[in-house]
Write a structure and sequence with these properties.
This protein has four helices and six strands; from the N terminus they run H-E-E-H-H-E-E-H-E-E. The chain is α+β, with helices and mostly antiparallel strands. It has one domain: Alpha-Beta Plaits, CATH 3.30.70.20. The strands form three sheets. A two-stranded antiparallel ribbon has the order 1-6. The radius of gyration is 14 Å and the shape is globular. The N and C termini lie close together (10 Å). Bound molecules: iron/sulfur cluster (SF4). Iron/sulfur cluster binds next to helix 4. Residues 18-49, 51-80 form the 4Fe-4S ferredoxin-type domain. This is Ferredoxin. InterPro entries: 4Fe4S_Fe-S-bd, Fd_FixX. It comes from Geobacter pickeringii.
């Protein structure tokens, strides 16, 4: 089973309260923004024109990569979703 097939069987229960929150000003001053390249769900988008980081938690796979690669500690909150929310992996 390849990664696309795995995602086809993945579902999300979205919590209105995000489980990851960034201080966007920290991202403006970051020198590599590794989250934009390492997040497998592409939750992070950097706009060079606007000098702005956008983060959408809806598709977060809860892998923890962004927490590890962020050497600026841009998170004002990083935790797993509350019980009953977040990603649900299903195997066929
Ligand atoms: Fe992306 Fe993983 Fe961070 Fe979720 S935990 S935002 S999937 S890098």
């Amino acid at each position: 089973m390849n990664i696309d097939e795995i995602f086809d069987f993945t579902s999300f229960t979205i919590d209105r309260e995000p489980h990851i929150v960034l201080d966007p000003q920290v991202c403006v001053n970051c020198d590599n923004r590794g989250c934009t390249n390492s997040c497998p769900a592409r939750c992070y988008t950097w706009s060079e024109e606007e000098k702005k980081m956008t983060f959408v938690h809806d598709g977060c796979l809860e892998c923890g990569t962004c927490y590890v690669v962020c050497h600026r500690n841009a998170f004002t909150r990083w935790r797993y979703p509350r019980g009953g929310f977040g990603v649900a992996y299903r195997m066929t």
